[in-house]
Design brief:
homodimer, alpha+beta, 8-stranded antiparallel sheet
């Protein structure tokens, strides 16, 4: 992939507060929801925080297939990454991602059993800008 | 459903230029993409226009399961509707939805074989506002 395209993909991700994160529900329908982008490593790994009891966690427990989508609707840029979602409920990971203010969502603090970290690992991507489209495998955009 | 909640859902849809429209790809992954909201009838039926040759049309041809998602990220509102996507390629439907400027995407005009209309029929919905959540069947929000 050309450096210029890769740079504009990275910029889109870094400028996005939210990602649209998708799962497959128990009836086989795609489900989408905006989630805060907590942390990422390049285009390969992304972390989100969520309630362990949420509907979406139950989806990924049964079917790890997922996608995340970043959109700049004014600039007509969009990036979709497809891959696998893992639910991390170990104390170490949860503490590492804990931020002041998270107690608004997880009242019992970083050990709250209803607090989990989601780890998304991308396999391939689809980026468009205007009418141009770029399909790629994650290996092609690694640093 | 309370009138106040229904009204705020309708307002979210009417204020959204785009919807995030999702399909299931051939490998079983959820795929998402922003599309212009062309027309809707209440919360039950939504139309979009697309290239017949697009990857997403091939997904829905094989698996009609779909969702559409409207987001007001600043106001922390989101609406997801799940249902079925139908591809309309008949001349009458295509002409009815044709708008000046569409030739940018479909160079041969309203009869362009690469121009199709997507018709989404919702079955159920999931609306959240802040930390409140409302799950509903479409029958409950019909006018």
């Amino acid at each position: 992939m050309e450096k210029e395209v890769r740079d504009s993909i990275i910029k889109l991700v870094e400028n996005s507060r939210d990602a649209i994160v998708s799962s497959i529900d128990e009836a086989g329908y795609p489900n989408a929801k905006a989630m805060f982008r907590v942390k990422n490593e390049g285009l390969e790994t992304f972390w989100f925080s969520t309630n362990t009891s949420s509907i979406r966690v139950s989806h990924w427990t049964k079917n790890s297939k997922a996608s995340i989508y970043f959109l700049d609707s004014e600039g007509f840029h969009g990036l979709m990454l497809t891959g696998e979602m893992e639910i991390c409920s170990d104390a170490e990971t949860k503490l590492a991602f804990w931020k002041p203010g998270d107690e608004k969502y997880y009242s019992k603090g970083p050990t709250d059993p209803d607090y989990s970290i989601l780890k998304f690992t991308a396999v391939k991507g689809n980026y468009y800008h205007g009418l141009r489209k770029y399909l790629f495998k994650i290996d092609e955009v690694k640093e």
